[in-house]
Structure formats: structure tokens, C-alpha cells
Amino acid sequence: MRDPAITVSEHEHAASEPGYGTFIVVWGALLVLTGLLVAMSHLGQRYAVLGLLTITPLKAGLVFYYFMHLKYEGPLLKAVVFVALATLLIFFALLFSDVAFR
């Protein structure tokens, strides 16, 4: 029987939250990606940089999406996070281009 004090939107919100199994799978994926990153760093500096540039954003995306619950937020907050990350990426590109052309 449904609790009359809980509204329909609260039931929908509770149903959209992931279970512990989802978090354990994501945590396992983060561990595997970390191990892969460490293994790539032992192969040399070129592979370490390649791993940092590819695996680290993937790990950050998993953390944002699942552990920070961005998957369950509305489109406006997703857009704000995307704009903030894009702005940060632009600033990093400008910083590295300045260093590269000295």
C-alpha cells in the first residue's frame, strides 16, 4: 500500500535512483581503468601521456555521471556542467598554446 504522505514525484524519483549493484560495477570499472592507466605509465612517457589524455576524462565522466548523480539531473544542469567543462578546456588549450609557441 502506498504511503499517502509520499507524493507521486517522490516515488518516481526513488525508482530512478540506481541500486548498489550499479555503483559497484562503476567502481569496478574505475579500478580497472586506474590499473590500465598505471600499466600504461610503465610502458614509457608517451604511453603515459596518451593514457592520461584518454582514460582520465573517461574516469571523470563516470564519476560525474554516476557518483555525482548527473545522469539523474535535468537538462539545464547538464548544460551548465557541459559549458563549464568546455570553458575549462578552452582555457587549458590557450594556456598550452602559449607555452608551446614561446
Structure description:
The protein contains four helices and no strands. The longest helix has 26 residues, at 75-100. It has helices at 8-16, 20-41, 45-67, 75-100. The protein has 102 residues and is an all-alpha fold. The mean pLDDT is 85. Helix 2 runs antiparallel to helix 3. It folds into two domains: 1-68; 73-102.
Radius of gyration using CA atoms only: 19 Å
How many individual domains?
A: 2
**Strand portion, in percent?**
under 5%
Report helical residue fraction: over 70%
Distance between the ends: 70 Å
Please report the number of helical segments.
4
Mean pLDDT: 85
Low-confidence stretches: none
The helix/strand order is: HHHH
E-strand count: 0
Sheet with the most strands?
Answer: none
Summarize the helices and strands and which ones pair or pack.
Elements: H1 8-16, H2 20-41, H3 45-67, H4 75-100
Describe this structure in a few short sentences.
The protein has 102 residues and is mostly helical. The chain contains 4 helices and no strands.
Q: Which descriptors apply to this entry?
A:
0% strand, 102 residues, single chain, mainly alpha
